[in-house]
Design brief:
Blueprint: H1 14-23, E1 29-31, H2 32-39, H3 43-55, E2 59-64, E3 67-72, H4 77-87, H5 94-108, E4 113-119, H6 121-124, E5 133-139, H7 142-163, E6 167-173, H8 174-178, H9 183-190, E7 193-197
Parallel strand pairs: 5-6
Antiparallel strand pairs: 1-3, 2-3, 4-5, 4-7
Helix pairs in contact: 2-3
């Protein structure tokens, strides 16, 4: 491998990340066509990526008849580095980082809220590039609701900088929630990811 090259080239596309997940699996041993079939990536692209991986000493290709069988090199610098990176899923899964930030905000403002939930397309994994981050908050009072809204406006600015997505808070008091007749909306909210619950039920740790 080129010792002055950056390992970031190994996971700078979704296709590479997909293949890495297979390669890091214990006992990885596949032909390019087998890997193409299970990953859903075209055979030509799989071979191109595997050759890049080979140049970084991540995999080894050996001929078996008319085919080339690829296996991982667990002792290599690239393999060991990728294991460390991929074990920390937050590096590859921004929603984990988002949830932690929402948890911290909720804990910091626990005197103002009963509950908070990440709901909508982000919680279900169906968001688009420009989707808002839908965040439900059950405030302890009308005054607390006003304070919460101001704080979430500041948090939204930081999220635009971090993720490129706007935070869309939906803040209610218990009285306001009980007056909602849109059952589908309530079902959507309650089906989301519970970030904070003052009673301790379903609270994420």
């Amino acid at each position: 491998m080129k010792l002055n090259s950056s390992l970031s080239e190994l996971f700078n596309t979704q296709s590479k990340i997909t293949l890495i997940n297979y390669i890091l699996t214990s006992g990885f041993n596949m032909t390019g066509r087998e890997l193409s079939r299970v990953s859903g990536i075209s055979h030509s692209q799989v071979i191109l990526i595997l050759k890049i991986f080979e140049s970084y000493n991540l995999v080894l290709g050996r001929r078996a008849g008319k085919s080339v069988v690829w296996s991982a090199k667990p002792g290599s610098y690239a393999f060991k580095s990728l294991v460390r990176i991929f074990k920390n899923s937050e590096l590859l899964n921004p929603v984990s980082d988002l949830i932690k930030r929402l948890q911290q905000w909720s804990l910091n403002n626990s005197s103002l809220i009963y509950k908070s939930i990440l709901f909508g397309s982000v919680s279900s994994g169906s968001e688009r590039l420009s989707s808002d981050i839908d965040f439900y908050v059950l405030a302890v009072s009308t005054e607390a609701k006003d304070k919460t809204l101001k704080q979430l406006e500041e948090l939204s600015l930081s999220f635009v900088y971090l993720y490129g997505n706007t935070l869309s808070p939906y803040i209610l008091t218990k009285k306001e929630r009980s007056a909602i007749k849109n059952k589908a909306l309530l079902k959507n909210i309650d089906g989301g990811i519970v970030i904070y619950d003052k009673e301790g039920k379903n609270k994420r740790s």
